[in-house]
Write a structure and sequence with these properties.
The protein has eight helices and twelve strands. It is an alpha+beta fold. The chain folds into two domains: 10-112 and 258-263, Aminopeptidase (3-Layer(aba) Sandwich); 129-255, Gcn5-related N-acetyltransferase (GNAT) (Aminopeptidase), CATH 3.40.630. A hairpin with a 6-residue loop joins strand 2 and strand 3 (48-52). The longest helix is centred in the middle third of the chain and has 15 residues, at 136-150. The mean pLDDT is 94.
Length: 266
């Protein structure tokens, strides 16, 4: 048996730790400076991520105020600060300003950043079919799985079609994968394409389809996709349910990241 590769190149490590900074922005994502931090505004009804830049903002209250103002101006009600270990010094000030380290739809209080630079462990999953979503029906079915699993707010069909039109653009740096069992879509996951590798977002499996290798099949398919594009590395920010699976697949821990949630409706 070949030895598994555990040394993680620095560009891959940075992709795992800072996906919202390192990855190219999608066609519907706007990154806006908040004074030592950057907010990523997207059209989805989930938390808008703020990530400190460099050593982080010198004036944390001003940066938080700028993020709140920007999010409100775009009709957003929840902001989440992505606090990697090098920015832990910001946590006490964020807490003083009313932010809390807790779960929010689409994210968890702790996201475990991980990386894989060799083929995922485990045999192929033969009774699960995985494909890239290349039609609106596939895109919608995958989105419905994600909304069910992550308890996300529903979007109108009109908005969903607009998101699909953006997804289908050649310039879009991401692909949605869906998994089917006996023709039914039971899982979905996203692959964001970076220079150093492919970052895995939003792996969601319906409860009735779990414990049969569906998540593993989605990961194996995205690994093959990463290899085909010449970037044989996967990174992920794993929550409490997916981390044990990622451990078994051979992912290596990079570092935990804390999310500090700012509910603008309070």
């Amino acid at each position: 048996m070949l030895a598994r590769v555990t040394a993680i190149p620095e560009p891959v490590r940075q992709l795992a730790l800072h996906p919202f900074r390192v990855l190219p922005a999608g066609p519907s994502v706007h990154r806006i400076d908040c004074g030592g931090a950057q907010i990523s505004i997207n059209p989805w009804p989930s938390a808008q991520i703020v990530e400190p830049l460099g050593g982080g903002p010198d004036d944390v209250p001003a940066a938080v105020a700028a993020a709140r103002e920007t999010a409100s101006a775009h009709g957003k009600t929840t902001v989440a600060w992505w606090v990697a270990p090098e920015h832990d010094r910001l946590a006490p000030e964020l807490e003083k300003l009313g932010l809390v380290n807790e779960d929010t739809p689409g994210f968890e209080a702790i996201e475990n950043t991980m990386a894989l630079v060799s083929q995922p462990a485990g045999a192929p999953v033969e009774d699960v079919e995985v494909r890239i979503a290349e039609s609106f029906d596939d895109f919608r079915a995958g989105g419905e799985v994600a909304r069910t699993v992550f308890n996300l707010t529903s979007v109108t069909d009109e908005d969903l079609r607009a998101r699909y039109d953006e997804y289908a653009r050649p310039s879009n740096p991401g692909r949605q994968f869906i998994a089917t069992v006996e023709g039914r879509v039971v899982a979905a996951a996203y692959a964001a394409l970076g220079e150093a590798g492919v970052n895995l977002f939003g792996g969601a499996v319906l409860p009735e389809a779990r414990s049969r290798g569906v998540y593993r099949a989605l990961t194996q398919a995205r690994w093959e996709f990463a290899v085909e594009r010449g970037t044989p590395a996967l990174t992920v920010q794993a929550g409490r349910m997916s981390k044990p699976i990622c451990d078994r697949l051979g992912f290596v821990d990079v570092a935990p990241v804390r999310l500090y949630v700012d509910d603008l409706t309070r």
